[in-house]
Amino acid sequence: MFPGKIECKSCGYLGIAEIYGRPDTLVDGAFRNLGHNPYTGDLRFQCPSCHTELIISPMEALDRNITTVMGFPDPHVSSMDDISQGLNRIGMAVWGFIILMAVNILIVIAKMR
Predict the structure, then answer these.
(1) What is the layout of strands, in order, in the sheet containing 14-16?
(2) Is 41 left (phi over 0), alpha (psi -120 to 50) or beta?
């Protein structure tokens, strides 16, 4: 059975998991259950501290000898965040270049007068 405790490998937060059918797990600070991946069987939770979507191996969750499971950031969600941050950086660089060129053009126009 699922041990109920999860450690977020993104921020290190340790807490209980929200489990359907168990009202005692529906508390503030619990890892929110996001369901599972039907293809891989990975369990999906959201960390209450850093709000990262985590995946947990179903084999680890079912092992009776494990008291705390490790939740790893979902690589698909993380990669999309990295791409959007990269695009934001590129956009900032492009705008910086455009402003620099505009200032240089204005300086050249001012010198021609």
Answers:
(1) 14-16, 5-8, 68-73, 53-56, 43-46, 32-36
(2) left
Whether pTM > 0.90 for this model: the answer is no
Type and span of the H or E element at 26: none
The Cα 33–Cα 50 span in angstroms is 15
Question: Which of helix, strand or coil describes residue 24?
Answer: helix
Structure tokens at 98: 């455009």
DSSP string, 43-100: EEEE-TTT--EEEE-HHHHH-TT-SEEEEEEPHHHHHHHHHHHHHHHHHHHHHHHHHH
10-residue mean pLDDT profile of the chain (113 residues): values are 77 83 68 86 88 87 80 71 57 80 90 84
